[in-house]
Amino acid sequence: MCIAVWTLSHPSYALVLAANRDEHLDRPTVPAQFHNFGEHNEGSETEIGHILSGVDTRAGGTWFGVNRSGDVGLLTNITETPRKWTSSRGHLVSRFLLHSHAKDGSEDPLHDFIDVATSNEERYAGFNLVLFSPTKSDNPEDRISYKATLLTNHGGGGDIVSKSLDGLTANSLPSQTLDKRGTINLGCVSNGAENLSEWPKVKKARQSLQEILDEPHLSEEDLTERLFQLLQWEPPVKPEKPRDTILVAPIHIPRIGSNGLYATRLSSIILITHSGDVLFIERDIFIPGNAVDVSSVPKAPSSSQRVFRFRIQ
């Protein structure tokens, strides 16, 4: 039961994004690092990797990442009855990050990717995919801003459709609110196909991010810690469902090929300034492994994290 919350209207940052990855604890994963999803061009710059993300080693894709061009993709599954599908949702994120960085002479790689994704005949389990693409203004400061797009199939096997999240509406999926100028102030997405604004975790995430935005002059350190605190929220009463809490403590969700233990494994934050400086932090939460019951799953210390800085190329 993942969640991501973001704003495109912070005075100091073109993009502020915070996300939790909730997953079965025994699903093998590579921590965030620069890489190319197995692609290698000997003797070229790609040896250091153009993509910064973790990797789902079972399926080969990712749930969340950024490339050196500043494109960001995040994926949440739609909660539904499990079925076998021939295509992996995580490959949608990896394809976007690889495609948008390569560009291949395209004037609008985001539009090209959306065209391909919405016209192909592959069928996926239910998903929401939010894509963030940077644009540079024509003014002398060359400030970076972001546009956001949602791709979703509204549930397993559905047709993929796209929706711009830059319009003047607060009623579309994912949950959004508007600032005083009538533009999107913040957005939030989780594991549902609709009515996300009624989920307790989404309500709390939006409220907490708005409180953070009401203090626009926080230092980078204070901002990141406030975002991590947002991602740690649990209700005072033990939640009945994962949708009732932002941090999912270990629970048992049966799944074929898994011991069933499920929890928040990672919290991640991306801050991108208007000048193109990127801060990416991936913090461990509940430690993956082969624990046999919920009480034996250890929680990682806050120092167990990976920090990356780079400038958009």
Describe the structure concisely.
The protein has helices at 90-102, 109-119, 200-213, 220-231, and strands at 3-7, 13-24, 29-35, 51-56, 64-67, 72-77, 127-136, 144-152, 161-164, 175-178, 184-189, 251-252, 261-273, 277-284, 305-311. With 313 residues, it is α+β, with helices and mostly antiparallel strands.
Please state the average pLDDT score: 89
CATH superfamily: Penicillin V Acylase, Chain A
Low-confidence stretches: 40-46, 168-173
The tally of domains stands at 1
Give helix % range.
Answer: 10-25%
The CATH class turns out to be: Alpha Beta
Give an overview of the whole structure:
InterPro entries: TANGO2. It comes from Sistotremastrum suecicum HHB10207 ss-3. This is DUF833-domain-containing protein. The protein has a single domain (3-311), classed as Penicillin V Acylase, Chain A, CATH 3.60.60. The protein starts with a strand and ends with a strand. The chain has helices spanning 90-102, 109-119, 200-213, 220-231, and strands spanning 3-7, 13-24, 29-35, 51-56, 64-67, 72-77, 127-136, 144-152, 161-164, 175-178, 184-189, 251-252, 261-273, 277-284, 305-311. The model is unreliable at 40-46 and 168-173 (pLDDT under 50). The protein is built from four helices and 15 strands. By secondary structure, the protein is of the alpha+beta class. Strands 1, 2, 10, 11, 12, 13, 14 and 15 form an eight-stranded antiparallel β-sheet that branches. A seven-stranded antiparallel β-sheet has the order 3-4-5-6-7-8-9, covered by helices on one side.
